[in-house]
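Lab meeting prep.
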Amino acid sequence: MTLILNRTDVMSVLEMNDCMNVVENAFGELANGTAVLPLRINISPPDGLSLYMPAYLKNMGALACKVVTIYKNNPAKYNMPTTIGKVLLQDPATGDVICIMDGGYLTAVRTGAASGVATKYLARKDSNQIAGIFGSGVQARMQLWAVTEARDISKAIVYDISDEATNKFISEMSEKLNIEIDKANTPDDVLQADIICTATSSATPIFNGSLVKEGTHINGIGSHTPNARELDTEIVKRSKFIGDSYEACFKEAGDIIIPVNSGEISESHFYAELGEIITGKKEGRTDDNEITVFKSNGLAIQDVATAKLIYDKALAAGIGVDIEI
């Protein structure tokens, strides 16, 4: 039998704190060599892009593949979302697909969870810190949620080019997280924050890195192609730069690829993978004046760990539909 979990099922059992725990373990497995993480497979049919993201976490007993498609004409032609995702979870002992679940909410939460874990290890440990969020979409919401799980956040500041989207973000997230959220009038207003998350669709830098104060931690998650970046060369040069994966950063992250290609920094400026910080192979923050940057590209180990968590919690809650395939 195969358990089918729709988006509502997934949302009913997936909490950020639980997701951060399993994502942290997944990055630890990657650093310790007990994770299998093949390269993402891309196929380009005439009207879209199809991505296949498999991974295996030995210690967690988690084996799965996420299938994501991006079809820009879907909303107009078929009244469907541009991006659609499903996760196929397997039993490592038999190889059988034991669960098929919606991957949209899973992906959003696991992306936030990675930033939450990075914040846990890299941000200063002061109380009553301010979070700054660039963007006001789904992922911006997840970033703020995760940061509030990792640190004592007294207030958040959000900036987006859309006032309507910003106001909606403030209304929803202030109620969900029970914190004060202010609207920034300019990008510079966000730079007073202690922890900054960039979750935009911008292909060019969204703030002046020379204005970022010492001791700031930044999670960069929006840009994900070699020619696009949210972070300018100045802030990358000023920071201790940590990525989810060295390989992914130098294939997909314009934030570091562009300054390396222009000769502003060398590849050695990439300090560590997040898993190396988690496992103690390398030090994270060493003083309160250091600026740290975590660049997230999104790895299949995050999906697999989260899918296993969802499946286990769904079984315990007795939700979903079993079908014979």
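Slide two material, second protein:
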Amino acid sequence: MSKARLEKVIDGGQKDADLWGAFCERFRREVGDAVYFSWFKSLELEKIVEGIAYLSVPTKFLRSWIQAHYLDKLRSAIIAALPGVQGIALESRAATRLSGGCGAEQRGGANQKEIISESRRTESLVGDKAKPAAADGIGGSVLDGRFKFSTFLVGSSNQLAFAAARQVVDGLNGAGITFNPLYFYSNVGLGKTHLIQAIAQAGQETGRRVVYLTAEKFMYGFVTALKRQNFMAFKDNLRAIDLLVIDDVQFLQGKTIQHEFCHTLNALMDSGRQVVIAGDRSPNELENLDERVKSRFGGGLSVEIHSLDEDLRRGILDARIQNIRAAHPTFEVNPNVVGVVAKLIDTNGRDLDGAVNRLLAHTILAGSPLTLDAAEAAIRDLIRVKEPKKVKIEDIQKLVATHFNVSRADILSSRRTANVVRPRQIAMYLAKMMTLRSLPEIGRRFGGRDHTTVLHAVRKIEEMASNDVGLSQELDLLKRLLAD
């Protein structure tokens, strides 16, 4: 805010042009950078009349959010900072006025029309009469029309996930939100993308404002909005929807983007909107994700989609074969062949799709009946040798803690008593031997320790095991338990 304008709005002829800037800086330190730059960067002081400080923000959404979450704190800070002020009034900014925001540079008159136009556009996106089509301005990812509830095959491995997904749709239809956020996780090809897209499409069919985004698309939209200087419009538009669906959240990168993602989750859920998310591992295993985001995930319902059982794999094969027969009526697969394929390929749905395509190719190219031997030969490259179980550091910590009668919290703590130090060193040794994690990463997972501490523990246990048969056997036992 300029010195001349500040002198006009402060009663009593206050001449300190830095007064408002000093308040903004003090308030930023009080609430923290993440909150300040997301919600208060554009806050402006319009005038002070009869002890009331009139404040403004660019959009109605921003005004409503501040009123719901920070009004008391803002009022107290303003009264303490500005002489003679006894209360505040917060409104959305009139599009016809042009001035600098809280801590912003004063803009020149040459850009006035452009900024007024942007202000009006932003208001139209988040006003009370926003239409479902407003969500289209975000540029959501494309939904696959095949991924609906009617084409999702349910088995023991995904029954809970399917029921939770249906509950979300019922909530959108008026039953009320039960699980928020709803988080699905699984290995690739087990149906989580199908399920969350089914939720998104069912939401659209009920007339709800729905946005489906991959993590990559969210990051692209975030960066593009910053470059085009319409970030407030992007943010407000995103938070005006009824259902946000995010896929592949494990790819969400960047501290600033993750902070904004967290604020978006908070804003949507605090206003009673539904959020559905999918990832390739449980929330506490998303090592690159901000702790606040993981904590928000943990406050909802996390559902794992397990490996496909044989009956479900057979059902998927039958459904795929029926779909192909629409284009190739002569394509026939003996039920015995389907049973063998379902037994041999126990990985995921994508490999089952590949198997059906190979069976079709053999039928078309060979022009002969599809025998069991021919089917096995056609899918040979999809039959994978069982890989060793992937051991997680968390599993190691839990097993070692139980084995030595201490808690996992003890292992992660700074305690240095003998009954804790030895299990901690053994757990670090096993983490180095049985995972692909680096020494710094292992140290971080053990209470933020330095990599040299991990290296010392590994060398110590190796030396002791070479001279202690009992310890060596104990380590072998732990390794077998972790590998099973």
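Talking points for slide two:
Residues 3 and 18 are 8 Å apart (CA to CA).
The domain at 149-304 is CATH 3.40.50.300 (Rossmann fold).
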